[in-house]
Amino acid sequence: MAARLLAVLVGVLADRFRTTADGAVRSPHLGRIPGWSAPLGHTPVISQRFAATPDQVRPARVFVAELLGDDHPLHDDAVLLTSELATNAVEHSSGPLDARPLDTGPADPPREFVVTVAFLPYGALITVQDPGTSEIPCTRKPGPGATGGRGLLLVNDLATRWGFHRDSTGTVTWFELRSTGAAPDC
Asked: Which of 114, 116, 120, 152 lies 20 to 30 angstroms, CA to CA, from 67?
């Protein structure tokens, strides 16, 4: 089920989203995906769009923290890993190459990232979609004095699974967290 939900999320995230008045992101395709054994309405999937600026990493963490609630067993790990992926979306994504016309001046088009939380029976699946870059997301081994470069190491160590998907709209990096004692994938 998790693999199928991930495929659905990647497909939905690759589509254009509609932003509601409260800033939430909704896809016109949620709830009508062919071949889905249960209506998506029974698997809560909630997204929020953020400007790709450093001051939006904290609101992304708060978004996930409030959705999960303080008592959720995966709260702390989900918030930490969301923070790491949101920071990567801000620091490493370059956005669409030459997306603006030449006569519009020096201003770059606004960049955004989207955080999506899918509640699963055994845990949560969280994705961060950004405009992408030419680099592939991978873990690094930073030196002892380095102030960065440990984000994906944390994701790799704490998440049950993680990965990424790229297409013409950018990069979707995701991680799955399972509650202790959760049933294995079928």
From this structure: 152
What is the predicted pLDDT for the residue at 51? 94
pTM: 0.69
The predicted pLDDT at position 95 comes to: 55
- Tracing tokens 């998440």 back to the chain, one arrives at 159
